[in-house]
Amino acid sequence: MVGDLIPRGKSCGDCGLCCKLMGVTALEKPAGKWCRHFSRAGGCAVYETRPGDCRVFNCLWLLTEALDERWKPTTAGFVLHSEKGGARLIVESDPARPHDWRREPYQSTLRRWAAAPEMEVLVFAGRRGVRLGAVDADVRRTVAGAG
Ligand code: SF4
Ligand code: SF4
Fold first, then answer.
1. Separation of 71 CA from ligand 2 center, angstroms?
2. pLDDT at residue 47 in the model
3. Ligand 2 lining (C-beta closer than 6 Å)
4. Which residue's CA is minimally distant from atom 1 of ligand 2?
5. Partner of 129 at 20 to 30 A CA spacing, among 6, 23, 100, 110?
6. Is residue 52 domain-shared with residue 66, that is, in the same domain?
7. What ranges in the chain are assigned the alpha helix state H?
8. Is residue 3 part of a domain?
9. Rounded Cα–Cα distance for residues 80 and 123 (Å)
10. Are 137 and 131 contacting, i.e. CB atoms less than 8 angstroms apart?
11. pLDDT exceeds 90 at position 116
12. Are residues 47 and 66 in the same domain?
């Protein structure tokens, strides 16, 4: 997944959490379930022929130099990605660790981002989620974690 946009020093390494949390339509892989092609020992077994969804996906930790090792998905317990040209930030929590985003430095940082003008931060664990705000609002999606 490493391309020109990836800052020097960042790489997926032993992560692979998007191979669990994101849905991959071409594989009929649901969000939140490990891809059948992934193994901890070997990573993606079909890397050279992986579907387009996998080729284009880079999480925001990988793309953002300012997000340090604490924000690496396997450490944080969630995968960050964005929609609407960056105006909507999605926190895709590992269903096995649905509350890890509430730890610091994550929660206060996510709430600060959510308070920025024209910015929306949604935290999901599967289909259920919250829109962060002065009062968090419950949200639900019909297709969980489609990526
Ligand atoms: S979640 Fe991010 S760092 Fe982890 S494998 Fe996917 S793109 Fe790489
Ligand atoms: S095909 Fe490879 S890159 Fe895509 S989800 Fe499966 S293991 Fe990950």
1. 21
2. 95
3. 19, 24, 35, 37-38, 44, 46, 50, 54
4. 50
5. 6
6. no
7. 18-21, 52-56, 60-63, 73-76, 106-114
8. no
9. 9
10. yes
11. yes
12. no
